[in-house]
Amino acid sequence: MTQPEAKVLSQPKRPSEDGKLNLRRWSDFYRAIINNDESTVGVVTRILRANFRDHRKGYAISFMFLFVVAAMTSLSAWIMRDVVNQIFVNQNVQMLWVLSFSVMAIFIVKGFATYGQIVVQSRIGNRIVAENQKRFYDRCLRFGLDFYNDRASSELIMSISGGSNAIRSILDTIVLSLGRDLITLLGLVFVMVYQAPLMSIIALLVAPIAVLSVSTLVKRIKAIAKAEFASSAQIIGIIQETVQGAKIVKAFGLGDHMRDRMLTAVSGVEQRANKISQLQARTSPLMESLGGISIGIVILYAGWSTISSGKTPGEFMSFITALLLAYEPAKRLARMNVTIAESLAPVRALFNILDHPPSPTEADHHASLKLTRGKIELVDVGFGYRPTDRVLSGINLSVDHGQRLALVGPSGGGKSTILSLIQRFYDVQEGAVLVDDQDIRNVSVASLRHNIAFVSQDVFLFSGTVRDNIRIGRLDATDAEVEAAALDAFADDFIRNLPKGYDSHVGENGVQLSGGQRQRLAIARAILKNAPILLLDEATSALDSESEHMIQIALEKLVEGRTTIVIAHRLATILSADKIAVIERGKVVEIGTHPELVQMRGVYEKLYRYQFDERSAEKAIA
Ligand code: ADP
């Protein structure tokens, strides 16, 4: 075995933490929301269809309570006639008792019904938020990598949290408006018409004026609310980039640049929020004035008719009470559209994701892969991430059971893409990828990935303990198996030296692990998975020689008896490979064993010589 080399054959990859500014993605997201002009009725119907049916029983109870609330409100207006006529005009002592207790009873019943309604409604609301979040996440899991490549995570965060809460708020608004406000209003209008028909007509004349004025406001609010939502998502995005790219933000002195971006987004949100509030508030002077004018006219007319025609003041009082009580539900009903308008943008964002077709690469209706040997073949493979550019073309490669194929070549040549295609992260556009002679498009993707262990060069750690992170290799592994895998990966020592050993937390807020330690965790995962096919993307970053040595030994053990394709950056790996393929600009330019390729005096030989010279130079310096 040759000693491993810390040097790399190809240029290091672009660091994943380059704090890439997602401006293009933002404008796409923004445009998607702005251009989604599904009508309000369309959105609301869809919300009702998808969420109302499952909660029919709950809503029926909620409506029952609302009906009681509405009935009690109308009754409280109704009873005013007898309160005034019996107590104040007729001075009936017996009725004094009856009516006082009736008023108390009405309000107590109303209080309890309101309590019941709020409890039931909140339960349904919380359930609906939870259901939508589950639905959203299930959908997300069915998208392929192409979906995630095109999106900022903050966009998804905003859609899942904003969208499901907005659905709840729209449903609440509809239920309360129809259940409580509409029934209350109808009850009160009935009281008004019954007690004083003519006065009712005067009072109700203002309704059409109110409806018309509010609908023009709604249009403007909808437009601003869309922009508001997109900017709010952008704020989350900037925070995420600041956290994830903290090192780069500091190193490149991007503080001012980030601050400017944040300022633009924040002040955009602030201005639009002000505008929305102002527009919403505009319903107040409108409704107050209209309400005041109609109440004023009614008092004028009623007072005049009571004085001149000797009508009892009871009807008048009952009518005025009903009118005053009707004012609040009428106002809320008129504003219902305004409230819904504000919630439409996040709901549309959520629908955009739910409507996005699941990726064919994740479809799982095929039969399982029948693995016999673990032979991998790429036959005339052509692929591009976008229709216009070609990343791979005419790739023919094959690795048999237990063999090792090393991919080498300059960065950007397409080596990682080949590993992605074998795992069916993307579908080839030409040719086919075969595993044991089965086209991977015709087998279930779960069974394919189950048979492949992938060790990538940037090791992602999930929030949780070290133990949890190794167990990702096989979720049903016992603690002993996890520790055995760590031992084989030369990770056991450093893990036991962590403050809480295997139970130390890693991930966003956990202990910091070095590059070498992370790689050993990744190897432990792969050992635990124990899959017949191994795909390995060797780390380009230079490791300390001890880590380097341990990783090399661990890898040697890991590849034993498996079909391995490795993106090789180290001489040791290359020398131990059965076959080496040089990938340049999406093509296999040379293929063979190390001695064959050196003899060819082509691209490989140059790469190797460069490496060799570097080694000599290093030795000379040492
Ligand atoms: P290598 O592994 O040899 O460095 P890659 O397979 O990573 O090369 O990349 C090959 C080409 O594909 C590069 O030009 C790269 O920019 C492009 N590429 C890689 N990943 C993506 C992606 N997710 N979307 C678009 N282009 C990509």
Automatic annotation (TrEMBL):
Residues 376-610 form the ABC transporter domain. Residues 60-342 form the ABC transmembrane type-1 domain. It comes from the Bacteria. The chain crosses the membrane at residues 59-80, 95-113, 174-194, 200-218, 285-304. InterPro entries: AAA+_ATPase, ABC1_TM_dom, ABC1_TM_sf, ABC_transporter-like_ATP-bd, ABC_transporter-like_CS, P-loop_NTPase, Type_1_exporter. PROSITE patterns: ABC_TM1F, ABC_TRANSPORTER_1, ABC_TRANSPORTER_2. It is found in: Cell membrane. GO terms for molecular function: ATP binding. Pfam families: ABC_membrane, ABC_tran. CDD domains: ABC_6TM_MsbA_like. It is a multi-pass membrane protein. Keywords: ATP-binding, Membrane, Nucleotide-binding, Transmembrane, Transmembrane helix. PANTHER family: ATP-BINDING CASSETTE SUB-FAMILY B MEMBER 10, MITOCHONDRIAL (PTHR43394:SF1), ATP-DEPENDENT PERMEASE MDL1, MITOCHONDRIAL (PTHR43394). Belongs to the ABC transporter superfamily. This is ABC transporter ATP-binding protein.
